UniProtKB/TrEMBL annotation, chain A:
PROSITE patterns: ABC_TRANSPORTER_1, ABC_TRANSPORTER_2. It is a peripheral membrane protein. Belongs to the ABC transporter superfamily. Keywords: ATP-binding, Cell membrane, Membrane, Nucleotide-binding, Translocase, Transport. GO terms for molecular function: ATP binding. Pfam families: ABC_tran. InterPro entries: AAA+_ATPase, ABC_transporter-like_ATP-bd, ABC_transporter-like_CS, ABC_transpr_CbiO/EcfA_su, Co_trans_ATP-bd, ECF_ABC_transporter_ATP-bd, P-loop_NTPase. It comes from Nonomuraea roseoviolacea subsp. carminata. Residues 4-234 form the ABC transporter domain. NCBIfam families: cbiO. The keyword Nucleus does not apply. Part of an ABC transporter complex. Responsible for energy coupling to the transport system. This is ABC transporter ATP-binding protein.
Automatic annotation (TrEMBL), chain B:
This is Cobalt/nickel transport system permease protein. Pfam families: CbiQ. It is found in: Cell membrane. It comes from the Bacteria. Keywords: Cell membrane, Membrane, Transmembrane, Transmembrane helix. It is a multi-pass membrane protein. The chain crosses the membrane at residues 20-38, 44-61, 73-90, 110-130, 142-159, 230-249.
TrEMBL record, chain C:
This is Cobalt/nickel transport system permease protein. It is found in: Cell membrane. The keyword Iron-sulfur does not apply. It is a multi-pass membrane protein.
Amino acid sequence: MNSLEVSRLAYAYPDGTQALFGVDLTIGRGERVALLGPNGAGKTTLVMHLNGILTPGHGTVTVAGTPVRKDTLKEVRRRVGLVFQDPDDQLFMPTVRDDVAFGPANMGLTGEELERAVKGALERVGMLEAADRPPHHLSFGQRRRVAVATVLAMEPEILVLDEPSSNLDPAARRELAEILRSLDVTVLMVTHDLPYALELCERSLILSDGVIAADGPTRELLADPELLAAHRLELPYGFAIPAPAEPA
Amino acid sequence: MGAGHHHQLYLPGASAVHRLPPQCKLLAVFAFAVVVVATPRERFWAFALYALLLAAVAWAARVPPGHVLRRMAIELPFVLFAFLIPVIGMGERTTVLGLSLSVPGLWAAWNILAKATLGVVASILLAATTEPRTILLGAQRLRVPSLLVQIAMFMLRYLDVILDEMRRMRVARESRGFEARDVRQLPAVARSAGALFIRSYERGERVHLAMLSRGYSGRMPMLGEVSASAAQWGVALLLPVSALAVLGLSL
Amino acid sequence: MHVPDGFFNAAVSGSAGAVAAAGVAVCLRGARRELDDRTAPMAGLVAAFIFAVQMLNFPVAAGTSGHLLGGALAAILVGPYTGVLCMAVVLLVQGVFFADGGLTALGINVTIMGIVTVLVGWGVFRLVTQLVRGKGGVTAAAFLASLISVPAAALAFTLLFWIGGTAPIEVSAVAVAMGGVHVLIGVGEGLITAFTVGAVLAVRPDLVYGARGLASSLVLRGPDGATTVEPAARPATAGHGLRPFLLGGVGLTLLLAGVVSFFASSSPDGLEAVAENKGFIDQATEHLMSWSPLGDYGEVGGIPVGVAGVIGVGIVLLVAGAVGYAARTRGQAAAGDDKIKV
């Protein structure tokens, strides 16, 4: 079964601005996929549909075989772990422990079970020793790791990260990459940080003007300068990817 | 009014007063305020004893007098008004220091000043010894409708966001030479209120989306129990019960 | 306008407490119809925003500054029922956390600044939006609604003061001072509310409760270039008109009237004294005027303060009439709708 299927998804905001014009994509279980696109391509809008925060104007979203509908929202939100771009949006409880416990507690976990879920999630991001500290006392990189833990505690089917590398210094960026690689879940990473996509994801999608414009191995997409230029994507200065060798 | 620096409301501590469950303290403060208001204004020494009771609570909670005095500034508008009552009041008049003052006005001023001040100090002590979130949990325990508690929770949460945005916008405004001095600047202030709302909403909305994404369905999960023992109730109710005793003696 | 402990006598504090509790209870029930899963956070934000803008003191006239009450804004943004809840929460938090407003005066504060402002604000808003359609109508209605709701609250304060204020001051002097200052504050509040609602309407029309039903059609374009036009899903409009509010208002008036008559009969001299001390009225008014920062100038923007007070009272009376008229036409419209459905 696929972790995520999106079909013919279209959406317009209440003020009339249309963001998505018919998106189709499929992500298999265990895949790590990057969703690339310039600012304003509709990336965040797409992400908001994955757990039913926005309701499609047209088309469907299916998570692990469950269609996203009003009556399946609770189930879908447990299965799709959304990590927001700004960890301050994600961390709203007085301590790291309470924050990580928020999701599982909403799912009905209590006592021992809840404690185990919290500990496990914090361990996976290496933040167990910060459990009793208030989130706003942590560094930005630490806060992002806690934000990932808040979502992992819910044992999601698919982890969706919005610009995971933004505002991170190089060390924090590497630490996060190691954590993401160590996780045994499907990952959809929304970013315009092309080297990070290359480092972590085998496969990439390019979202441009509200439709999926390209879908293929990350290395191949990034080695195609015309494709990148056509969709306002750019590799950082001095960074070049050799075209992949023709398969023998 | 409504001004204040809410980050300085709470003084962290581990005193007996701090450790009391919030619902006990809330009820005690409300009951105390009712007793104070119900006291006839002629019983001067009863008010003195009430003040002593509050001083004892402040001492037990290690709340410095300076903190209480600073926070009492909130009362200022009504204090000014109270001082005017004898001047503009009706009825029999008396002369104090060459000023013609109304006798009922003097009584009214005393009544308002004494009762309002005691009420204000009691609330200040509650806020100084109890974190805002904890007070709300106490309210939840006291069966305040959950929708109200929820709105208040979100309100406290968003207040930081809004104050932050407000400060940033003021800096931006003033760094461009704007100063709110009289009515003519009102449209500028009004326009910034509109921008303030949108900015705070969009920030607050993301927090809310994050909560929805983690299964929030309208009820804050109760993490950590806050139940009160009989002994704790006893300690907390010491304040209103002593006040009631004073009232009984004074009648 | 936050009333401290001891400012009103026990009977008025208690009655207002009962009115406030009943009002909040009604609104808790009604709010369920206004809210979806975004409601509590949105209401919390509106409460926080009102709390914050109440801190945003704006200069009224030389030396004095007023603050918004926010009731009309709350009603327009989240609907009248939830609006009352927002105001109640703001006042509760101010009383308990900030010692702003007495705990025993909570009922009075909620009644005056929560229920009266929301009631009057929403009534005016509905009336104007029915006369003037579209976004412009919403913004204009927001301005008028809050402009009028503030002196209405001042009038309610004066009324309660007349019934059971503990200070021996001429009620007419209180009315002039409160009315005058609050007409000016009302203008400021009207501007801020109009700009806020206007700004939200421009960027996020979905957030303005009072503007539900303004949504335009969506154009959905498929990737193959085919264009389809779909009408926007219209949310259930705020169809539960003014009737509950009118009933609430009538109930409030009756309750207050009951308290008045209670006092009138138990202490007749209290009311007669007003007449007897006629000589004092002029003196008291004069003193009050000279105290009032407005008094130094005698006029604000060309309007003498006394006249401003009278205008305030007049506006409130006009509103009462207008609300009554609106209720009647709405009632007729509703009856008409029923016929069409049948």
